[in-house]
Design goal:
heterodimer, A: about 190 residues, alpha/beta, Pyruvate-ferredoxin Oxidoreductase, domain 3, six-stranded mixed β-sheet, 6 strands, about 20% strand, B: about 525 residues, Rossmann fold, 3 domains, five-stranded mixed β-sheet, 21 helices, globular
Amino acid sequence: MKTDIILSGVGGQGILSIAAVIGDAALNEGLYMKQAEVHGMSQRGGDVQSNLRLSDQPISSDLIPLGQADLIISLEPMESLRYLPYLKRDGWLVTNSQPFINIPNYPDVETVRKEIDKLPHKVVLDVETIAKNVGSVRAANIVMLGAAAPFIGIEYDKIAEGIKRIFTRKGEEIVEMNLKALKAGFDVAQSFAG
Amino acid sequence: MGKHLFLGDEAIAQAAIDAGLSGVYSYPGTPSTEITEYIQMSPVAKERGIHSRWCANEKTAMEAALGMSFAGKRSLCCMKHVGLNVAADCFMNAAMSGINGGMIIVSADDPSMHSSQNEQDNRLFADFAMLPVLEPSNQQEAYDMVYEGFELSEKLGYPILLRITTRMAHSRAGVVSRAQKPEREMECPANGRSRYILLPALARKRFKSLLSAQRLFEEASEKSVYNCYYDAPDKSLGVITTGIAFNYLSENYPGGFVHPVLKITQYPLPVKLIEKIASECDELLVLEEGYPMVEGKLRGILNNGKPVHGRMDGTLQRDGELSPDAVGKALGLSIETFYAVPEIVEQRPPALCQGCGHRDMYAALNEVIAEYPGAKVFGDIGCYTLGALPPFRAIDTCIDMGASITMAKGASDAGVFPAVSVIGDSTFTHSGMTGLLDCVNENTNITIVISDNETTAMTGGQDSAGTGRLESICTGIGVNPEHVRVMVPLKKNYEEMKRIIREEIEYNGVSVLIPRRECIQTLTRKNKAKKK
């Protein structure tokens, strides 16, 4: 088993919270893991990415080589395109459809959508709206995680257990909402993959 | 003991605690900050009373760490690479005195300048100081090297520089920790004066000691289990790696190395191991994260020995961090990509947060500055450096910590009017206060804006050394209290802010303006914590 994941978004969107759940599940599975992060408040509002590598064998590099990522998970559609040279030929792109526009020259939203559509394997979903429907917009990142879940190489149930472990101190209600968010994202991905 | 998922920074912190650390002394700086933060949050560190409070700057930090070592205890001092420039006076001379309790200095270098103004490689600084260096290749090694490093420092009698880079500092991996050792008892050196008083007559002796210690340092490198030789059949090339470059090489040979490899993680260079790979292989390739230090030594200026490839002959790029792809290319391996970045993708630079007080400071300042065609604004290091970018484009310079005040002074001396300095509260206490004294002593015509958000914001909101005392610091240094003006940077106050800025620019002398409003990030965090 070996999965190389690039997480991307805009500083402050919380890509690391997605990585934290995957990392927790991976460790519980006894997998090797390396995760290169971007830190510092100076990143706020700028493009950010994290390289997450999982394997049942020891991992050498903290960075994913070009053309070898199995999966790009992006909380922002334009940011999902920035790391395409890292995606392998049959890799998956899972991205939020809603743009985060904080620069004056943000490209035409329709053009961004068309560029994403060109890819053979993608899941595009409005994570904020889906999260709102299951309880809270704060679960948007977990909806995103659910949509990526079929491609991570860890069983869905194991990821759900990771969510339970991470959110348990926030109370049962929060755990339930996040599990619903995970499922909602997962269902969307199934419809794309199917 | 146990297995943890640690950032490189966290592995270093836990290792220091486990090795019997008594104090960490640091100033925040990306990518080193998380080492000290981890120790501040550690229950064991709290229980043992390990010193972990932030220092005013890297120099005060290193001197305090040396003092703790003098008293026989183990100390750690962490900084980003440019911090070592600030602490250089202590660093160079701690190499003269040597240490008593084990002392490790961490330099977190930032090749590719993810969050820095240069990419200096501090292995060269240690070479200059003639001190040993440890440069781990992964998080486990970082843990092990620090765990064993204090003892090594004590055995050799000198401080050790642990050099890491951004990818090591800020990447997580599984790390196995070891048994916790007790702290050392306080015990000052018996014949300390001959070592710690660097009067010329004594210093000359100390320098001879440092020179003769080089042989011991080299022996330690030759024997180090972290400097490894990997034999392989194809001897047309030998590859020498330093630090994390080893991982990028391994990534390119998942089935095992084709050429012999020498992995270096401890300096001074293990000469015998280098002789071995050089004598066995036709040519050498050097992979190092940072400056071509090893490569340069191997080539020499005559470059008439064995062919040496690396950053100096264009086999690898001369600047920036390495990657598995850059290393693969240098080895002539093919790299296939399948999708290009579409042309529509635009740059997205970081920006000041919405609601940040620096924004209001710049908005008001820019309006007044527009009235003075000759105005120059000297910036400094912090979130407010982002004022260089649109929409503000408010500063003309940003060089090093504290330079806003002193550069504005020099420019004012040269006739620039108005000469305005913009500096943050933490940067002011780090390196701005001495420059302010220069201004006061000459009654320089200068307007200094200390944009006070009551924290060290850029690195994530650490305590700022002068919070609550900036006015008294300024008047204590000698600024006329009438020209120390505090304001609240908010839209509703723009007219008042502009009036004060104008008045103080027109005042012929030293003025300090303090727009003060708490960092929006630390405020949000505090409010959240209150709700719980």
